[in-house]
Write a structure and sequence with these properties.
The complex is a heterodimer of chains A (about 110) and B (about 120). Chain A is mainly β. Helix content of chain A is about 0%, strand content about 45%. In chain A, the strands form 2 sheets. A 5-stranded mixed β-sheet of chain A has the order 1-9-8-3-4, with no helix packed on it. In chain A, strands 2-7-6-5 form a 4-stranded antiparallel β-sheet, with no helix packed on it. Chain B is mainly beta and about 120 residues long. Chain B is built from 1 helix and 11 strands, in the order E-E-E-E-E-E-E-E-E-H-E-E. In chain B, strands 2, 4, 5, 6, 9, 10 and 11 form a 7-stranded mixed β-sheet that branches. The chains are: A mainly beta (about 110), B mainly beta (about 120).
Amino acid sequence: DAKTTQPPSMDCAEGRAANLPCNHSTISGNEYVYWYRQIHSQGPQYIIHGLKNNETNEMASLIITEDRKSSTLILPHATLRDTAVYYCIVGVTGGGNKLTFGTGTQLKVEL
Amino acid sequence: EAQVTQNPRYLITVTGKKLTVTCSQNMNHEYMSWYRQDPGLGLRQIYYSMNVEVTDKGDVPEGYKVSRKEKRNFPLILESPSPNQTSLYFCATMPLILALQGSYNEQFFGPGTRLTVL
């Protein structure tokens, strides 16, 4: 499984873009990058995922570098409700039997 | 409404007293799994199930049992709980086809069960 590395914490002002980085230098060619978030001990919530191309949905944008060794999750206009722990995960292909969450990035959005 | 429910949501118990945490889903998903979450360690998978009567160990299965007699239910059993099993537990589900592809974009998590073992 490809491991991921994220900064433990980040701060962001409300209304500004939050850019959360993730390194996954051992990612395999057919493994996707997924982002989840967890708000204060609730169940993790899926945000977005991608393989090679940049992706955007109503929640966020995902920028994946050309070599796929890192990615950035962008929350374009962060609000206080976006305060959460954000997890970057690389999917296991084939067996799909293990989904490993790391320690994530604690994003704190402040006024 | 798509739902994953867990019961109980909070439980305080004593060492050695058998307990079961239930997980139920109404999405007809084949794949279900249990995670525990501890400070500084992130989410770790305990057990998972690809379908009825098919279960397998995750990363931290010691001290836990599971069963999958029905598609919708996947209970987590602690036969003899110990204090090191004090944790926040999450049940998760997804369609099997996505699990096999490693596509975790449709994994639904339950609300969590906070367990304290004294």
